[in-house]
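Re: that chain you flagged

S.,

Sorry for the slow reply, it's been a week of failed gels. I finally had a moment to sit down with the sequence you sent. For the record, here it is as I used it:
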Amino acid sequence: MGYGSRMSTPAINLDNVRRQFPGLARTQGEDTYAFFDGPGGSQVSQAVADAVAHYLLYTNANSGGYFASSVESDAIVDAARIAAAEFVGGTPDEIAFGPNMTTLNFLLAHAAARTFDPGDEIVTTELDHDANVSPWLQVAEDHGLIVRQARLHRPDGTLDFEHLESLLSPKTRVVAFTLASNCLGTVPPAQRIVHAAHAVGALAWVDAVHFAPHRRVDRMAIGADVLLTSPYKWFGPHLGVASIRHDLAASWPADRVRPADEEPAGHRFETGTQSHEAQAGMVAAIDYIASLGEGTTRSDRLDSAFAAIRIHEDALALRFFNGIADMEHIHLYGLSDRDRFTERVATFSFTVTRHHPDQVAERLAEQAIAVWSGNFYALSATQALGIEETGGAVRVGFLHYTTPDEVDRLVAALGALA
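Prediction finished late last night. Pasting the structure tokens below so you have them in one place:
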């Protein structure tokens, strides 16, 4: 979908946005907390908390009953499938929910692998979170498959697409890749990867977790076969969401209790009772994001909202980059060419001379600045960059509720570490 293709792009009203996130008012001494930990999990809006609480207090019941609260629970689940399909692409019956993306991806990878033959191949990338690498290593061990990994370019943290292409063959069954690196912020060429995968008859298996709070996701537009994400990265509750191409979802073997065997398509991969309260909160998160945009339908409003989010975050990314550009003690990994910032989201990883990443995170936390340190489960990336054995990196991420003043405060704190 095009950003703002149907209407003008509204500006992010930071005052209005921040009023909707109670967590952003947290203080430490005289300082208000600055949250740059979004890549590990965003803050939650009041509307999301209210939706979760309302479900638990007034609608809590299992599915399939004839009494009022069960009927209302079923309606919430139906609404969640519709909202999730609008948010990630696909149709409601192609949606599967799980406790988190990682658990859901292990489940789906095991299901798909049961249809493969020994010697078949899986391709992953060094840009990926381990949640889209380890499942394939596990199923490869179980089923006699071969896993190959496409390199990233060390100097700029982008995907070596030519290397990925060289790994593809008629035996390739899955190409698993991310829409945005949760370590480096890199956005690889998704449609190009999908086309290459499909050209050899492989499935395009997409991790959209880190991409989803920053840009509009659409499995159908990308052409992917499987796409997964996590609402707690985009202002919602802890939950996993998958959009699975209908014929695959309907045919893969699913581990289910016997009375549930007749569930349609993607629903077949939902083992046991789901978190209805989290599904209610996810709908509220999607509606919140849509409220930032303009248009007559929720889909239109999401298009418009993500256009506004991208403009705001791109400005913050450039502000941060310009702020640290002359700091010789900061070593930034990934894209650092201002003219190529369209190839990244507003996530940065760096190291600080003479400081262990954990020390930097601790020093910043003392100033009420929240960041992450380590490898962020992007193990392949930190190993490829040669920083895993020295503690990984420090990671900061900007979201639509981040202010320019907070970015300036972060830059000043990093400057003081010289």
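What I noticed first: The mean pLDDT is 95.

Talk soon,
D.
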